[in-house]
Amino acid sequence: MHYNRVHLIYFSPTHTSAKIAYAIAEGLDAVTFSESDITHETPDKIENVEEELTIIAVPVYGGRVAETAIERLRMFRSNQAPVIPVVLYGNRDYEDALKELCDLVTELGFIPVMAGAFIGEHSFSRKDMPIAAGRPDDMDIQKAMTLGKDVLKKLSSLRSLEDITPLQVKGNFPYKIKGASTPQAPVTDEELCTQCEYCIEICPTDAISILDTGMFSNPERCIKCCACVKECPEGARTFDTPYTAMLHKNFSARKEPELFI
């Protein structure tokens, strides 16, 4: 079996999921590809993915797939298109996230072929307390490309998708129960802020607005992806949480991607 078209679907506030998705696509050596970037909005109607080898890449929050990503992925359907589910986690653990993603895409009509868990710089990482800073790096990208090449080899050995055995990945069901999340959002140093509104543009949940008193981040809408913190051109956004120090202390040792074939 051979697929000339590759479809990328990703939720990627800080670009780590997108980087891995593109690297896998490069390894697939596709003739053409299309993409559905669901980072900033939910598709306005159901999207059907047919006869395209698909890559779905999403971040892990607290050992589960990011809830916003799940909501937006539910707008896709397929009639047995092969898919490569991928999760990106911040060097702690992805726990049940990859299984959750595999189960979801199967429910939506895709057939998982291979899957992977990759490391991306943690949302809470800072210069003085780095957590997987700079990940995915060149070695991660190479492993993602290798995953794409391995998928090609696997598909070329099959007569039909019916020959694919159910993919087994790390994780448990019922999935991990996430603890209650305390509403919190980044704050703005108004002396540094120029109100360029770039943070408003890149926020995946429309949590940021301008008030008479300056920039406001709605903690009820914020998903703590920290895209606005990492990408503010003036360095005017900060997110303070004691979890940063804990993660830096306990999860700084390098972890490697895990691939499931």
UniProtKB/TrEMBL annotation:
Which Pfam families does the record cross-reference, listed alphabetically?
A: Fer4
Keywords of this protein's UniProt record, alphabetized? 4Fe-4S, Iron, Iron-sulfur, Metal-binding
Tell me which residues make up the Flavodoxin-like domain.
Answer: 6-152
**Would I find Oxidoreductase among this entry's keywords?**
no
- Superkingdom field: Bacteria
Q: Which Gene3D superfamilies match?
A: 3.30.70.20, 3.40.50.360
> Which InterPro entries does UniProt cross-reference here?
4Fe4S_Fe-S-bd (IPR017896), 4Fe4S_Fe_S_CS (IPR017900), Fe-S_Ferredoxin (IPR050572), Flavodoxin/NO_synth (IPR008254), Flavoprotein-like_sf (IPR029039)
Which GO MF terms are attached to this record?
A: 4 iron, 4 sulfur cluster binding; FMN binding; metal ion binding
Q: Which residues form the 4Fe-4S ferredoxin-type domain?
A: 184-213, 218-242
State the SUPFAM superfamilies in the record.
4Fe-4S ferredoxins, Flavoproteins
Identify this protein by name.
Answer: 4Fe-4S binding domain-containing protein
Q: Give the originating organism.
A: Parabacteroides chinchillae
